[in-house]
Amino acid sequence: MDVFSKSDPLCALYINTSGSHWYEFGRTEMILNCLNPKFAKKFVIDYYFEMVQKLKFCVYDIDNSTYDLSDDDFLGELECTLGQIVSSKQLTRSLLLTDKRPAGRGTITICAEEITDTRVAEFEVSGRRMDKKYLWWSDPFLEFYKQTETGWQLAHRTEVVYDNLNPIWRPFRISMRSLCGGDVEKPIKVVCYDHRISGSHDLIGSFQTTLAELQVGTHISPAEFECINLKKLKKKKYKNSGVICVKRCQLVKDYTFLDYIMGGCQINFTIAIDFTGSNGDPSSPRSLHYVNPDGYNEYLAAIWAVGNVIQDYDSNKMFPVFGFGAKIPPSWQVSHEFPINFNPANPFCAGIEGVVQAYQQCLPQLKLWGPTNFSPVIDHVTCFAKQALRQNTASQYFVLLIITDGVITDMDQTCAAIVEASRLPMSIIIVGVGDADFSAMEFLDSDDKLLRSPTGDTAARDIVQFVPFRDFQGNSVALAQSVLAELPDQVSSFFNSYKLKAPKYIQCF
């Protein structure tokens, strides 16, 4: 779809649970300059035999950095049921346009497998003396493939290490089901490429092995594998195109979200509400803070939608709620972190009903002002997440819901705060209300690449989920499903990465 290059495809998965409304379940990574992409991202979906679970896979050519896909080129879609995919194991269909005509010659292939093994393999991998592919350097990355009945299936892709013939890749994890289906003797193919921005990556070399062989480096010296480029085998002096060193390949049990929740982990829910002047005078029907006769506005709708789901995982259902960007009594100084019940010693509200009541009572007492600073409320929750991590248990996880109408003023400080929070048991949900430009929020929700602070520090993981309220047309169920879809994996992946075991199940009688 691009004039001077190939398309940059991404696939978004949508699920239909209410008859006519589709909500986004997740997205793959974007593949640069590629007409035959293989996506490494996996979607984990609960399968119910007794239900018709409608799915829609939409493929786009990504042309900008905004979250909204409506301004990207649509390449085609496939609408099917989860039952069709499960019964086929591998389903290949033509991509269609929205009017059901063929979208050129494009096809999509979807593979499904049951998750019966929750173990993961943790890797530390480096390379030595990789072939030079451009003058005196290469930009190597690795792809791991699982052998299936229909051929090699991509299981994992590492990051690119630029300008380096002796690369050291960041530690990574691959689930046993993705890598070898739980069989340590099943063949695995590892391919090393030199990255090209054109998408036509240059093969450095490859090798085949098994998980059992990869584990050798964990017990003695690093397991080493020669990267072979078959086209170079004719040359008499050719030995290899570099050596891949596996310093560590260790199998560990990956505890699930349910393991942690049923073991007693509490989800601590904090709400932060934007009271900046751009929301408009709350007494005016045109204001985003105006509460209509039915007791509704977009702020309240977001609180109800997300809070009603989250509160089931918090035993005491006492939620701290803060406002930012307003002048508050009695000093009428601008504050970016004030409890909406005006009680700093006890900023908690009892249940979502208490949150709604406190919100409605505080509105007439505020002077909406500015600017829009996120970092103070993020830092506030970060303090408690740090204390929880020091306990060295998987007993508490923190979720911050920020509801806002506009552009972030303290972007550098916010990026730094999020990078710090990414190393803690914490996630951030941002709901954008109104019709403002939310490009800054979309930047923070870094699905394709990890966020970096102004000082160059990289986030340990993606902890921000942003959605614009306007995309859900008042459908609170779909809104909650969209913003909370990534949370279970964020909880389990954090605790697993710190090797914090799930407490034993609580037996119920």
Automatic annotation (TrEMBL):
Keyword set, alphabetical order: Calcium, Cell junction, Cell membrane, Cytoplasm, Membrane, Metal-binding, Nucleus, Phosphoprotein, Repeat
InterPro entries: C2_dom (IPR000008), C2_domain_sf (IPR035892), C2B_Copine (IPR037768), Copine (IPR045052), Copine_C (IPR010734), VWF_A (IPR002035), vWFA_dom_sf (IPR036465)
Database matches in PANTHER family: COPINE, COPINE-3
Subunit-level organization: Monomer. Interacts with ERBB2 (preferentially with the tyrosine phosphorylated form); this interaction occurs at the cell membrane and is increased in a growth factor heregulin-dependent manner. Interacts with SHC1; this interaction may mediate the binding of CPNE3 with ERBB2. Interacts with RACK1.
Cross-referenced PROSITE patterns: C2
Domain C2: 1-95, 104-224
GO molecular function per UniProt: calcium-dependent phospholipid binding; metal ion binding; receptor tyrosine kinase binding
Pfam families from the UniProt entry: C2 (PF00168), Copine (PF07002)
Record function comment: Calcium-dependent phospholipid-binding protein that plays a role in ERBB2-mediated tumor cell migration in response to growth factor heregulin stimulation.
GO CC terms of this entry: cytoplasm; focal adhesion; nucleus; plasma membrane
Name of this chain's protein: Copine-3
Top-level taxon of origin: Eukaryota
Record-annotated membrane-spanning stretches: none
GO BP of this protein: cellular response to calcium ion; ERBB2 signaling pathway
Family: Belongs to the copine family.
Record localization: Cell junction, Focal adhesion; Cell membrane; Cytoplasm; Nucleus
